[in-house]
Amino acid sequence: MVILETERLLLRQYNKEDIVSLHSMFSDAETMKYYPAPFSLKKTKNWIQKNKERYEEDGYGLWAVCLKETNELIGDCGLVKQIVEGNMEVEIGYHINKKYWSQGYASEAAKGCMEFGLYQLGLNKLISIIDPMNIPSIRVAEKIGFSEEKESFIFNKRHLIYSFIKDGC
């Protein structure tokens, strides 16, 4: 099921056929540089299952990012509930296969998710939780209009919280 469409991308719910493409990306050390470790096959399967649960519980989660032209899965992007300093926030998260880096796909997908969250879900604020050393993710957040809000200790380490607040809120 396609959730949203951008100029070059389709974002849809995960399905069981996505495991190979997703694991190829998540098991790569360079792609997962800002995570504690690359994902095992089991962890990738759990990632897909957790997002399927999010679709049911929240109405959103991380979605498969596919090229419109070929339908190839090149990453994921979407909305995820996170607890930050005791408050529930909705984060835009994104991962793109390294062979597609620096082509604007993460920004395009994140912008689509931002519009979905603000205008279809009616959210007033969105965040991104970013490792301070992850300059490409910082650039994506800034490119779609987010700005640094604060630093916070999340996932057992220091992270930057970038946010976007809808005008008038």
From TrEMBL:
<keyword id="KW-0808">Transferase</keyword>
<dbReference type="GO" id="GO:0016747">
    <property type="term" value="F:acyltransferase activity, transferring groups other than amino-acyl groups"/>
</dbReference>
<dbReference type="InterPro" id="IPR016181">
    <property type="entry name" value="Acyl_CoA_acyltransferase"/>
</dbReference>
<dbReference type="InterPro" id="IPR051531">
    <property type="entry name" value="N-acetyltransferase"/>
</dbReference>
<dbReference type="Pfam" id="PF13302">
    <property type="entry name" value="Acetyltransf_3"/>
</dbReference>
<dbReference type="InterPro" id="IPR000182">
    <property type="entry name" value="GNAT_dom"/>
</dbReference>
<protein>
    <submittedName>
        <fullName>GNAT family N-acetyltransferase</fullName>
    </submittedName>
</protein>
<feature type="domain" description="N-acetyltransferase">
    <location>
        <begin position="9"/>
        <end position="167"/>
    </location>
</feature>
